[in-house]
Amino acid sequence: MIETAIKEHICFVIAVSEDKERGAGKTYSSAKFLYEQYIEHGERFLIFVRNVKELGHIAEGVFGNYLNDNHPTVSISEKKQDNVFSYVYTTTGSGEEKKSDIIGYVVPLKNAPGVKQYRGIFQSSNVRYFYMDEFMPLDGKYLPNETQLMKTIYDTVNGKIEDLPIIMTANCISLGNPYFTMLGLNSKIQTNTRKIKTETCVYENVTVEGLASKHMNSAANKAFRQTGEDYSSNVWIMDNNSLVCKPDNWGRAVYICTLVYDNKRVGVYDYYGSPYIYVSTTVDKHCDYIYNVKVEGDLNIPLLRSAPFLKTLKDKFYRGQVRVSNGEIQRMLIEIFA
Question: What does pTM read for this prediction?
């Protein structure tokens, strides 16, 4: 995937795996690639994290298993620089034979403005690759303007305006992440999508044959099999009419609110005795709770970000706990929550 991106001048390399496919080797393979590029060519990397508190802890987590398996005499560590970024060191030998090398850096996205004062360090150090592990967090929490913060750091480090790849890996798939929206992937991915190549992204949903079965047959997964089932892969929500159904013995329905979308009204129902929220063309005209989510062609972003129930609805939508009465409503929810 990385070779394809470099050859065809594509920026993003995204490798994901569904929740049930943990252990597909994405981080391990990325560590192998980044380490070997430095050893063989002197090319360094920059690892993105979100927050300053993550400095000092990331490199060992990314490279530890790979180095233990393949280079057991090599240790890896981080040293903070003014709490703005970390140097990533490898160390071999001891005493007079001890040798340390800077092979990369860790930079929090939140520190994007402060990184500019260190541009000389980065631009003279042959940084050729960028990497972010778990770029889709399980809790769904992203920084405001996260993609712009990444772009600021990328431009600061990449002084020659070269086509340097950004490698991203994750163990879950949620279409409501800012990177998929930026790259237009949330309008392209379907349940059965394994690989996609666009002019901006090389994407693959990575699987290892037999791994899912092995996981599910383990003692731990047998014990926890009822836990977190609604966190399984969410890619299905983009399939045409995949959410369309009629309530079937869901229990008592309670009308929650009305959504207004370009002057079209839909009703939102909660069902006691069921995990589902249902969005229907049937509207209670006497309900006082009305959310105008799109007006004259523009999404009401302040409302979508601030209204507590809309935040709950979005969370349930991406957990697979929302059903709708027709495909038009499904497409509406995808638009307002992407």
Answer: 0.80
Domain hosting residue 99, numbered range: 2-222
- For the record, the structure tokens of 241 come out as 């009419």
The predicted pLDDT at position 75 comes to 95
Within-domain flag for 106:
yes
Between CA 200 and CA 190 the distance in angstroms is: 18
| DSSP string for 168-232 | EEES---TTSHHHHHHTGGGT--TT--EEE-SSEEEEE---TTHHHHHHTSHHHHHTTTSSGGGS
Give the pLDDT of residue 212: 65
212-226 pLDDT per residue, tens: 677 677 787 777 665
Is there a single domain that holds both residue 168 and residue 249?
A: no
DSSP H or E stretch at residue 253: strand 252-261
The two structure tokens encoding residue 335: 């638009």
> What's the CA angle centered on 75, arms 71 and 80, to 5 degrees?
145
Calculate the CA dihedral of residues 58, 60, 63, 68 and round it to 10 degrees.
-170
Number of domains present in the structure of the chain = 2
Predicted pLDDT at 274: 86
* Total Cβ atoms within 10 A of residue 334: 17
- In tens, the pLDDT along 248-301 reads 889 999 999 999 999 999 999 999 888 899 999 999 999 999 999 998 889 999
- 315 and 187 together in one domain: no
What is the predicted pLDDT for the residue at 232?
46
As a whole number of Å, the end-to-end CA separation of the chain is 26
Check if the beta carbon of residue 170 is closer than 8 Å to that of residue 19. no
